[in-house]
## 1
Amino acid sequence: MSDRVFAVVWLLFCAGMAWVGWAIQAPFSYEPIGPRAFPLLLAVGMALSAAWLLFRPDPAPDWPAGSLRAKTALMVGAFLAYSLLFEVLGFPMATALVTVVVGRLFGGTWVGVSLGGVAMGAGMWFLFDRLLEVTLPLGRLFGGS
């Protein structure tokens, strides 16, 4: 039963995400498909997964307990902070920080996750911004708007 409750809540979230995504308008066309495609595709994928869970729930779901529940909450908080700080810190810094947090939650060493965070933030920014020409914010720290 808890799987179905979660699925219904997640479907409502997906509907809200699709509604907000549909309202995204770019003042000019800077990409072939425009900025609304990513949130809409993501909402559709999540809605399909939630629908699967709604109609084919696990007969005996095993929800996280103890430290796993705390780690799950911290990860959700990290990604919420990522979404809130994305424009302020910019894509490279926000991505590096969330990579460090998630890496630590999965038991990575400080040196390893720090190097991975820097590589992930810089590498993904270069891939998207320079190679794929998807404009990403640099943030105020790096002189962006």
Note: The helical segments are 2-22, 37-55, 67-89, 91-105, 110-131.
## 2
Amino acid sequence: MNIQGKLIIIGGAVNKGSFSEKNVDVAAESNMNFFETGILRRILLEAKNQENARIEVITTASKIPKVIGPEYKKAFECLGAKNVDVLHLEKRENATDPAVLERLKNADVVIFTGGDQLRLTSILGGTAFHDLLLDKYQNEDFIYAGTSAGAAAASNNMIYQGSSSEALLKGEVKITSGLGLIDGVVIDTHFVQRGRIGRLFQAVVGNPRTLGIGLGEDTGLLIKNNIEMEAIGSGLVILVDGRDIKDTNLTQVELGQPISINHLVTHVLSINDTFDLKTFKMTIKSSQYAENLVFTQEDIDSEKTVN
């Protein structure tokens, strides 16, 4: 299927109950500027009608929606967005309200905030809102953006629980169905800062065809046609490719025992690097091996001084 929409998944910086870890930050307002001038601006640039795009901020995942929603609205408006509103969906019945569905129908961009991704999928999954969301993403010039829980829930397979410290003990990582905008990947967030690589390893070794995506804070991926991925933001994206795993003890050990994995491939992307989900080929934008490298006079003078 030729997907018409764009997916922007962001590693987040404010966590209000995702997974089972306790180190959550309660100062939501003071952390909202972590991507205001970078990733949010990119969302506007990619949006149909740009500053005039109709943007809905969806706070379903959050335990403090009345705090988070207005902060996103303020951030977008500071960047010049003229048509931003907040949509609170707190019960499944809200997701079948004709007025709510009409707002989604008219939206050019939706951004799902952080919080608890299991709350997000349990409220929206299988509703008329969910069906319309998928239809718009597949068939319209439409952006689904999600940060933290909103990013983790975007894929078909969703990590919803598992501490970082015990992630490579069999059974410690819990996976369920997400919103299903993209298949063949599993997404983890706050990735570098919270040392979550172990749980992405476990998610991938259980089904090596699935590509693990670990998003650092203030970092995201812009995905077009569910194939072309571009790293955006200031941090790192870690990709875990299990297709060439040679051996593991996954099925031989008991629950709670350590997992061994032989030959798990990882890639690290930073801003403007790309990855093709069809060919599994990564391109480093500023590769030191690229042909026709451009050097400034300052670079040349510096090289002469060193030598």
Note: The longest strand covers residues 155-161.
## 3
Amino acid sequence: MTLAPLTGVIPPVCTPLTPDGEVDVASLLSLVDHLVAGGVHALFVLGSTSEAAFLPDRQRRLVVESVTGHVGGQLPVLAGAIDMTTPRVLDHVASVTAAGADAVVVTAPFYTRTHPAEIARHFRAVAAASPVPVIAYDLPVAVHTKLSADVVLELAADGVVAGLKDSSGDLAAFRQVVTGARERGAITGFSVLTGSELIVDAALAVGADGTVPGLGNVDPHGYVRLDRLCRTGDRDGARAEQERLCALFGMVTVGDPARMGPNSSAIGAFKAALHLRGVIACPATAQPQIPLSPDEVERVGQHLAAAGLL
């Protein structure tokens, strides 16, 4: 299957949950409608912001089936097939593609330390088995391996991966991939996407094709506006919009680090914001993440108000 090169804003869709931890399908579809109304260009389910690592396989499949069935081909739907080893990833690929995903997003293997040759072998095995394009996901904070530009470019040149989602926050390394892909003129249809929502303007300036911003769940209009300003060359407007979004992103720090980890704080803030905006019914996060307190939720609301979203 072919996939048009990915560009623009591709939010990693949060997974709304009920108070007892089940997928809230009605809220999930409400969130999808919110994102589509915001003008996004594709959707990415079962990523880090989706809490994919916390979801059992039946819930992962339900998310993909629900979203693909709802958008009905209106937008491409990318689905994470993220797990520790190649055989487990292959199982996820089979599941999410049967559920309708248009592409799969795959990290390097993790749990054991891996060599670049093993990482390349992993992606080649996944691509050989996948009926849809494979997007490499550079997520060193979770998998403890940084995808090197050399490995990514080799896989891209060989048609193994159709794109890169870089959530490393390393703009210099990101630029190596962008310039390397440009220099290797034979790489066609390869998309380079940043997952770092605080440097979208900078990433687009160095040649990124698009962005995958977790904060885009909360303010898709803002990221679509930022993308447009960057592409039309309005540097002052883009800088102002990026700075507004950076201030809004401050909501991810509302959780008290003495009682919760940064993931609980960040995902909890996104879901609290979506709940406050009336998009989802419940801000629950998956176990064992710790919920925000009422005072912390109030601070999320203050960030929303300051950004003009409440």
Note: The beta strands are 8-9, 43-45, 77-80, 103-107, 134-138, 163-166, 191-194, 210-211.
